[in-house]
Amino acid sequence: xxxxxxxxxxxxxxxxxxxxxxxxxxxxxxxxxxxx
Length: 36
What we know:
By secondary structure, this protein is an all-alpha fold. It has one domain (2-32). It contains 2 helices and no strands. It is flat, with a radius of gyration of 9 Å. It starts with a helix and ends with a helix. The model has no long low-confidence stretch (mean pLDDT 66).
């Protein structure tokens, strides 16, 4: 579970590099996928 969450946050970090976006929704996105 934690490994998936780490991977999820990691993917979001990669996406942010391109979007120059602040990571406010990272945890919400991961929670949406069913991982709190």
